[in-house]
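INFO batch 0412 | record 1 of 1 | parsing
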Amino acid sequence: MLDYDEEAARYDASRGGEPRAAAAAEAVLALLPDGTRTLLDLGCGTGIVTRRLAAGRAGLRVTGVDLAAAMARQAALRLPGAVVRADSRRLPFRDGEFDAVSSVWLLHLAPTDADVRAIVAECARVLRPGGTYVTTVDKAASHNVGSDIDAVLAARPPSAARDAATLVASHAVDCGLLPAGRGRFPGRGQGRSPRRTVADLRRGWFVTLPPGEPIAETFAARLAALPDQDRPRPDPCFTLAVFEKPGRAPEGA
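INFO prediction complete | emitting tokens
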């Protein structure tokens, strides 16, 4: 697992930067009802998406949350006074405080299924009646674009997909949320090249291929043997799942 405090300095540049952030923010905003006035962005990271969420719709007040201190500091520079360092499993907000909650590229990082459920439960708790939760699902599967890199990586030991769409939907329903739609957006600038994939492998990107272990080096050698070492393969396409909290907003909300 990557250390996201260490990752903060290079996070944006290594993950598609502003083009990817723009695509994510546009997709999330397109799924929020017109009356949305307050949005909580969980796992906001460096704030590169969160800032675009805040700027993308007039009158929308956005609060960012991240657990990694270095990430939260960078996000706070982009959104002064609007970022809280907190654990998404135990949010420091009142019941029903937000019109909407988003979590982009967060649930796949949860250590266990119980942690995913805890996050979803907190999202449900802080949503007002009639509120909307938007989250990415199936992130690992989204990176499989059918390339030669994917063919090599297909043989690696499997890992649990904590953000599997069916699992997230099950947790959401258990927490009182109802499925309300889907969305998709491109991961611009995230097409993998073999050389970049080897570098990511050696810094702990792939959970079942621990850096320095013989199995990791076996896969590194297979990737290094592919042609066009610096040519990015196609970008991934990410999936958003939408859920609604039953009920009506209080009068005057």
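INFO post-check: The domain at 4-144+159-190+234-244 is CATH 3.40.50.150 (Rossmann fold).
INFO record closed
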